[in-house]
Amino acid sequence: MNSTARFITLEGSEGAGKTTALKVIHDTLNDWGVSFIQTREPGGEKNAEAIRDLLLYSDHLDAKTELLLMFAARNEHVVKVIRPMLEKNIWVVSDRFVDASFAYQGLGRGLQWETIQYFESLVVGETQPDLTLYLDVDPETGLARAASRSEKDRIEKESLTFFNNIRAGYLKRMSENANRMKKIDANQSIESVTKQIQQVLNDQQKALLT
């Protein structure tokens, strides 16, 4: 393959099925014979993981504090993990990235889109994903799925309105990045979602490997 590594991200709200989707991506990249790492946000690096605990388990955070912490964690992640791996010709697969801030802190928390764009420019810069799979799920369906899992974190305890706003944020972000972001209907069965992801990856294979 070509010497240029790729950066793939996975986005979606609670209960969208990201664990299953990550496995499909993992298996596909193995089939392609590329070297890659799997990481996550918030987190993915020692300091970023410490910030993750603040973000998910603090009793209360102001919306601006949440945004600042997200980008502080992301800066550590980008500088110490994502860029070094890509420079070593190792692909990166991340469970969430900057699109999540537009969804969660943007339309979710009601912060200005332009403010998030500023931090995106400052922290992310040109380290943008080559491909993003967005798992689009009806919030009620997603929350019902998530309810069967372990104890809820601070974000998962938010209202249905909050998650409807997140979905709107993702869809707005996707409309601005149609070439990069591909929507997967995550309301469907695991088998259907798996086939959709495989189809997108197969469609993108030539572009990603050249």
TrEMBL record:
NCBIfam families: DTMP_kinase. One of its GO terms (cellular component) is cytosol. Phosphorylation of dTMP to form dTDP in both de novo and salvage pathways of dTTP synthesis. One of its GO terms (biological process) is dUDP biosynthetic process. It holds the Pfam family Thymidylate_kin. PANTHER family: THYMIDYLATE KINASE, UMP-CMP KINASE 2, MITOCHONDRIAL. It catalyses: dTMP + ATP = dTDP + ADP. InterPro entries: P-loop_NTPase, Thymidylate_kin-like_dom, Thymidylate_kinase. ATP binds at G12, S13, E14, G15, A16, G17, K18, T19. Its EC number is 2.7.4.9. Belongs to the thymidylate kinase family. Keywords: ATP-binding, Kinase, Nucleotide biosynthesis, Nucleotide-binding, Transferase. HAMAP family: Thymidylate_kinase (MF_00165). GO terms for molecular function: ATP binding; dTMP kinase activity. This is Thymidylate kinase. It comes from the Bacteria. Residues 10-197 form the Thymidylate kinase-like domain.
